[in-house]
Design goal:
Layout: E1 8-12, E2 17-21, E3 65-68, E4 74-80, E5 95-97, E6 100-102, E7 108-113, H1 127-144, E8 152-159, E9 171-177, H2 182-198, H3 202-213, E10 217-220, E11 224-227, E12 238-242, H4 254-275, E13 280-285, E14 300-305, H5 312-317, E15 320-322, H6 326-335
Parallel strand pairs: 2-15
Antiparallel strand pairs: 1-2, 3-4, 4-7, 5-6, 7-9, 8-9, 8-13, 10-11, 11-12, 12-14, 13-14
Helix pairs in contact: 1-4, 4-6
């Protein structure tokens, strides 16, 4: 698909963002970045100094959960984060003086060690193992909801230095917090408003419109749709929506987890091929605790590659500039040929 002839402002009704699609920005002279990204350094399957590698379990705090592999060894582990942003506490200790307000960072901060091997990315893992990781997310989500004071639970992964990762061993994180972020509250408010006015879920409507348009859809399965939003914030920014309305991630079934693992695996392989193995973040966005029965929120998984930087305009205005139109991002992802076994990957071992 050809690039837009001129810059265009697009509106995202879910995030409430206005995004500038400006393909010409991608052709600017750049004194600071190489034309071809440097390849990632080759890692060994095991690192003696890595606290997440098998045999080094004593270097971490006692594990919260262990999912065993068929050979009896662990496949996925969940640990308390050594540098936790939130910790369990029975009281919030709210304080207020004039305009200054504070309370305890009550909750939990956990690390999900995704695989015993030190050198694997999610795109390298086989679908059954990805499904195991997704089931662990669900199990921890259901338990963390029971903690006192928890209102928001975020499952997220930082892949690569530009995405905020500090350790090479494949891992993701789960945070349970006593507050719902402004970003989530704003999206929930808009979803409620849309439902009151139109009598339907905003997310379901956006997904239906994307399926009808077709040009930004990357892949569909029986239970999930992967697409690049019309007003995507950055190149290759992709959402995976459950096709059937569901407000909270913990409602996902075992069968749907297997399907989501397949769609996610294929998307990450497509991203690696189309965009040169970029750093990325992904997060599972779900209804706040206590809002699971709400008819207006719709959980989804977002994958955000880190291919561009926020500069002065973005920071000053809150408006993003995307140098690769959503249609072109989706087309490039669809065009990746997934060879035999690319929805399988490296088996557990």
């Amino acid at each position: 698909m050809s690039a837009l002839a001129s810059p265009e402002l697009r509106y995202n009704p879910i995030t409430l963002d206005w995004v500038i699609m400006a393909a010409a920005r991608g052709r600017r002279p750049d004194d600071f970045h190489k034309e071809i990204p440097e390849p990632r350094p080759i890692q060994a399957p095991y690192s003696e100094g890595c606290p997440f590698c098998p045999g080094n379990e004593k270097q971490t705090d006692p594990e919260i959960l262990r999912d065993a592999a068929p050979d009896g060894k662990w496949a996925v582990r969940v640990l308390p984060n050594k540098f936790a942003a939130f910790t369990p506490t029975p009281e919030l200790h709210r304080q207020a003086h004039e305009s200054f307000r504070s309370m305890a960072a009550a909750g939990a901060h956990e690390v999900v060690v995704e695989h015993p091997r030190h050198d694997l990315a999610l795109a390298d893992m086989d679908v059954p193992h990805l499904a195991t990781i997704l089931r662990v997310y669900r199990a921890r989500y259901m338990e963390l909801k029971k903690l006192a004071h928890v209102r928001g639970i975020v499952v997220f992964k930082n892949h690569g230095e530009r995405a905020g990762s500090s350790l090479l061993h494949p891992h993701s994180q789960i945070i349970a917090a006593p507050v719902v972020s402004c970003q989530v509250r704003m999206r929930l408010h808009e979803a409620r408003r849309f439902h009151e006015v139109h009598g339907e879920c905003l997310y379901c409507r956006v997904m239906a419109d994307e399926l009808k348009a077709g040009e930004r859809v990357v892949e569909t399965s029986r239970s999930f749709t992967a697409f690049v939003p019309y007003a995507s914030l950055s190149p290759y920014h992709t959402w995976i929506f459950p096709t059937t309305h569901a407000p909270s991630y913990d409602s996902i079934t075992d069968e749907q987890i297997e399907e989501l693992a397949t769609v996610l695996k294929r998307l990450l392989v497509r991203l690696r091929t189309a965009a040169g193995d970029p750093d990325y973040n992904f997060t599972i966005r779900s209804a706040p605790v206590g809002e699971e029965s709400a008819c207006c929120f719709h959980w989804y998984l977002a994958v955000v590659p880190r291919l561009s930087h926020l500069a002065g305009f973005e920071l000053g205005s809150g408006t993003y500039i995307n140098s690769l139109p959503s249609e072109e991002s989706a087309a490039r992802l669809r065009q990746v040929r997934l060879g035999e076994g690319q929805d399988g990957g490296i088996a557990q071992g």
